[in-house]
Design a protein that fits this description.
single chain; alpha/beta; Rossmann fold; Methionyl-tRNA Fmet Formyltransferase, Chain A, domain 2; 2 domains; seven-stranded mixed sheet; 8 helices; globular
């Protein structure tokens, strides 16, 4: 069973850890090049690269995967399966077709719903109470390939709206566990791919920093539906890009918030521009 794994951020590491617990580790990891991170722009390897180093797994970090001929570590060997989890680059069909059993992907939505780059955060933004994880065969179209496995997740259990960063992690654990169960059965020919109903497809947009601005007055916080819609954004954008508002010319990032008993937005923790994280009341009290 020769597997190559394509992934980059921390959620891909969570999936790899779930696979490791089931005794499945890839023979090769493909991730993005090191990138400059933070205010000091320190060149930093992706989380998946650090996992490969810890587990002594062969690693490549190509600038591009558009031409498989430039990837000798892949084309010079035979592969049973490629697994893609939040890799961050479009993989051409010529590369997807290399493994004997194709290339599979973990996608955190109930496909064909929420195809695209931000299904978890979009589910929160759209006030959806149920989503799930799909494992599919990749083809040349975005999130279009046939489904191998699917499981629903009631994301309204406990706190709602849920924290987007925490939900990312929870669904990565779920997807990794599903993948660990599926891979041996799929390679044994026990699973038949099922085509998606493309007529029912919905799409989510890629989240950008300019979506995270809130137009609120911190001295007169909103109530009712306006407060709830703002809370959806605060929770959906947890971790990144994080919501903010402008007060007296300064950018103030919101770290946590809730609704009080009257339905008013209650901001708990903030990071004012140029300062450390603090209580909202400490700054505005």
């Amino acid at each position: 069973m020769r597997i190559a794994f394509f992934g980059t951020p921390e959620i891909a590491v969570i999936v790899l850890e779930e696979l490791k617990q089931s005794g499945i580790l890839p023979d090769l990891i493909v991730t993005n090049p090191d990138a400059k991170i933070g205010r000091k722009q320190i060149l930093t390897p992706p989380p998946v690269a650090l996992f490969a180093e810890r587990e002594h797994i062969a690693l490549i970090q190509p600038e591009s995967v558009r031409d498989p001929k430039t990837l000798p570590e892949i084309v010079s060997q035979k592969w049973d399966l490629f697994v893609v989890v939040a890799y961050g680059k479009i993989i051409p069909q010529s590369l997807l077709d290399i493994p004997k059993h194709g290339t599979i992907n973990v996608h955190p939505s109930l496909l064909p719903k929420l195809r695209g780059a931000s299904p978890i955060r979009s589910a929160i933004l759209n006030d959806m109470r149920e989503t799930g994880v799909s494992i599919m065969l990749l083809d040349h179209k975005m999130d279009h390939g046939p489904i191998l496995a699917q499981a629903k997740t009631d994301i309204a259990v406990g706190q709602w709206p849920q924290d987007g960063q925490l939900l990312d992690e929870a669904m990565a654990h779920q997807g990794g566990a599903m993948l660990a169960d599926l891979i041996p059965r799929y390679l044994a020919g026990e699973i038949t791919p099922q085509a998606q109903n493309h007529d029912e497809a919905t799409f989510c947009t890629k989240i950008s920093k300019d979506m995270s601005a809130l137009h609120i007055d911190p001295l007169n916080l909103p109530v009712g539906d306006e407060a709830y819609q703002n809370l959806l954004k605060i929770r959906a954008f947890s971790g990144w890009p994080e919501t903010f508002f402008i007060h007296e010319g300064k950018r103030i990032k919101i770290k946590s918030a809730s609704l009080d008993a009257t339905g008013k937005l209650n901001i708990a923790r903030i990071v004012p521009e140029g300062k450390n994280e603090m209580d909202f009341q400490q700054y505005f009290g």
